[in-house]
Amino acid sequence: MAVYKSKTPTKDGRQYFFRIKYKDIFGNIHDYSSQKFKTSKEAKNEEALYRIKVANNETCTTSITFFQVFNEYILELSKNVKPQTIIRNKYLFEQLKPIHNIKINDFNLNNLKQLQYELEKKNYSIDYLNKIIETLRRLIVYSNKYYNTNAKMLNFIMYTLKCKLMKEIFTG
Question: How many other CB atoms are there within 10 angstroms of residue 172's CB atom?
Answer without folding.
Answer: 4
